Amino acid sequence: MVSTHDTPQHDIPSHDASEALAERIRRAEAEGTPLRIVGGDTKAFYGRNVQGEALSTREHRGITEYDPVELIVSVRTGTPLHELEAALAANGQMLPCEPPHFGEDATVGGMIATGLSGPRRPWAGSVRDFVLGTRIITRQGSEQRFGGQVMKNVAGYDLSRLMVGAQGTLGLLTEVSMKVLPLPGASRSLHLDMPLARALEKLSEWGRQPLPITAAAWLDGALHLRLEGGPSSVAATAERLGGDELKPDFWAALNEQRLAFFARDDGRALWRLSLPHHTPVLELPGVNDADVLYDWAGAQRWLRSDLDAATLREVVSRAGGHATCWRGANGQPVDETFTPLAPVLAKYHQNLKAELDPKGIFNPGRLYAAF
Q1: What region holds the FAD-binding PCMH-type domain (predicted)?
Q2: The pLDDT of residue 134 is above 70
Q3: Measured between alpha carbons, how far is residue 362 from residues 69, 137, 177, 349 in Å?
């Protein structure tokens, strides 16, 4: 492994604040004081509000180990996400899950806690797929290591993955080891005017072929594609598919929700629908094509609607998916961001929370009111 300080291009600020964090957690456990874990706070809107004393991870930062040859990096969770990405890019590598930032202060910990992935997700994998191991401070203030730095090391592997998307409710994540991948040799983006039905049909057809597609989104009457891979493959595919050249910054604007679709101020709630691949257009009352942005080749859909949560979630559930309220009507917070759990799943969640955090000090109520 290579230390960040052995290679100047990775010499980003580094500081180990784990003992101070552990001491604060030990005190909170003894006093029964709830803690609100804070990194960059750029994704604070994603989930329920947490009442508790702020516990910041921002001082706990730096790349601890990085082996470009083995495609593995270990990094403290308070590290700004853009610093990690810059260090990887200096070696021609990247985070394949393409996590959104939603602000300059986004941290590695926020990436793991929310588990949000970008346009490349259906073709490359999710955040969870690239986590190899973690370090976590438990409620007793003890830092424990789970998983490892190689794919074949399975000890604690599932527990490390369990932390992805847990929003800090199971313990304080202090370090993560991840698999990284090389940047693509070539990239081109295309804009193809076509109606939604034809776009979904073509995406289903192309999905059965070995095409170098790494992003696909439909909005405003057009299908947007990104091709990545070897130069000859990308060029040949672009010539075959046709269309107009699309500025590559479109994908960052989509990922960071800077497109006009997300900026509309029409008073309606914004929903994120997660659906099986090749799900047809959903029959939703009062919803037309202009109200939906299709990402992940249609597996992730952004919907503007004033439908009540129960009706919408019932339709999405029947299609095999789930609906998350990203932003409430008129920008107001919502009580239940995530789809309510079935009784059996709720029991498992409650049992896990009771085992790892019986006093409820870690981000209580962040995911669901009961835990």
Answers
A1: 4-183
A2: yes
A3: 37, 11, 22, 14
Q: What are phi and psi of 226, to 5 degrees?
A: -120, 130
Model pTM above 0.85: yes
> And the tokens for 10?
């990775």
- Specify which residues 257 forms β-bridges with: none
Distance in angstroms (rounded) separating the CA atoms of residues 276 and 173: 30
Alpha-carbon distance of 117 to 111, in angstroms, equals 8
Closest by CA position to 79, among listed 102, 58, 103: 58
Environment class of residue 289 by beta-carbon count within 10 Å: exposed (0-12), middle (13-18) or buried (19+)? middle
DSSP 15: B
Tell me the pLDDT tens digit for each residue of 32-62: 999 999 999 999 999 999 999 999 999 999 9
**Which of these CATH numbers, 3.30.1330.60, 3.30.1490.20, 3.30.465.10, 3.30.70.120, describes 4-182?**
3.30.465.10
Q: Where are the domains of the chain?
A: 4-182, 186-331
DSSP 369: T
If we measure between CA atoms, which residue out of 369, 344, 371, 366 comes closest to residue 167? 366
pLDDT, tens digit, 9 for 90 and up, residues 93-107: 999 999 999 999 999
pLDDT band, very low/low/confident/very high, at 149 (cuts 50, 70, 90): low
Which is it for strands 53-56 and 35-38: parallel, antiparallel or unpaired? Answer: parallel
> What backbone torsions phi and psi does residue 276 show, to the nearest 5 degrees?
-60, 155
CB atoms < 10 A from the CB of 316, how many? Answer: 23
- Which of 42, 37, 41, 43 minimizes the C-alpha distance to 55? 37
Instruction: Decide: 364 and 49 in contact? Cβ < 8 Å.
Output: no
The yes-or-no verdict on residue 20 having pLDDT over 80 is: yes
